[in-house]
Design goal:
By secondary structure, the chain is mainly β. It has one domain. The protein is about 0% helix and about 45% strand. The chain is built from no helices and 18 strands. The strands form 5 sheets. Strands 2, 3, 8, 10, 13, 16 and 18 form a 7-stranded antiparallel sheet that branches. Strands 9-17-11-12 form a 4-stranded antiparallel sheet, with no helix packed on it. Strands 1-6-7 form a 3-stranded antiparallel sheet, with no helix packed on it. A hairpin with a 4-residue loop joins strand 14 and strand 15. The two termini are about 25 Å apart.
Length: about 200
C-alpha cells in the first residue's frame, strides 16, 4: 500500500528515517508520461514505467519508510544507474539503508559504506528484475507494479514491471559519511532512506 506523506516527515513508526538527497546524481530516464517523450530507456530496448502510476515528485511511504521519489517528465533524469557514484549521507545514526530500485535481470553487487573516521565497510546490494511478472529473488518487498510497460512506440498493457523495496544493513550505525555505489549500470536506484530501528 502506498501512502503519500508531507515533506516534513522525519520519523516513521520504524524509528527515525532520513531520506537521502540523490537529485544531483540522477542520470537516466526510466519513467515517462503516457504522452511519451521517447527518451525512456530503462533498458536497451527503451522500456519505461508509466509516470501516472508512480508517486513522481512526492514523498511516499512504503512499509512505514518514507522515500523521496524523483520527479519524472520523460525528459529529465528520474533515477540513477550504478556507476560508482559517491553519495554523501546525512551525519545521523542508522541501522539500514532502504532502497527503491530494480535491476535488468536480477543482480547483486557490493557497495562501500564510508565513515567519518576513514573506515570503509563493504555491504551487499541485491536487486531483483524489473521485468514484468518476475518475482523477488532476494527477499525484497514489492514497492510498485504498474499495469503496463512502455515501449518506444507503444504501450504494452499485458506487461507489469516492478520496482522493489530492498534494504542494506549497516554493521556500524554511527559516523556515516558516504555510500559508494558499484560499477554496475544494470542496477537502477530511485530513492534511498536511512532508517534507525525503533528502540
Amino acid at each position: 500500500m502506498v501512502k503519500h506523506v508531507t515533506p516534513t516527515l522525519v520519523r516513521s513508526t520504524v524509528g527515525a528515517a532520513h531520506p537521502v538527497a540523490i537529485e544531483d546524481y540522477l542520470d537516466s530516464v526510466g519513467v515517462e508520461p503516457n504522452s511519451r517523450s521517447g527518451r525512456g530507456a530503462f533498458n536497451i530496448w527503451g522500456n519505461a514505467f508509466p509516470a501516472e502510476e508512480l508517486p513522481c515528485g512526492n514523498l511516499t511511504e512504503l512499509d512505514r519508510v518514507p522515500f523521496r521519489f524523483p520527479a519524472a517528465d520523460g525528459k529529465r533524469p528520474d533515477h540513477l544507474r550504478c556507476r560508482g557514484q559517491r553519495i554523501p549521507l546525512p551525519a545521523v545514526r542508522a541501522d539500514w539503508i532502504h532502497v527503491l530500485g530494480a535491476a535488468e535481470r536480477r543482480t547483486e553487487d557490493s557497495v562501500l559504506v564510508e565513515y567519518a573516521d576513514g573506515t570503509v565497510r563493504r555491504q551487499w546490494l541485491r536487486l531483483s528484475d524489473f521485468w514484468p511478472q518476475t518475482g523477488p529473488r532476494f527477499g525484497e518487498r514489492l514497492a510498485f507494479r504498474t499495469t503496463a510497460m512502455l515501449y518506444p512506440r507503444h504501450e504494452q498493457n499485458t506487461m507489469s514491471p516492478s520496482i522493489w523495496h530492498q534494504r542494506v544493513p549497516l554493521a556500524v550505525a554511527d559516523g556515516l559519511s558516504a555510500l559508494v555505489l558499484p560499477h554496475n549500470p544494470a542496477m537502477h536506484l530511485f530513492a534511498l532512506t536511512l532508517v534507525t530501528e525503533a528502540a
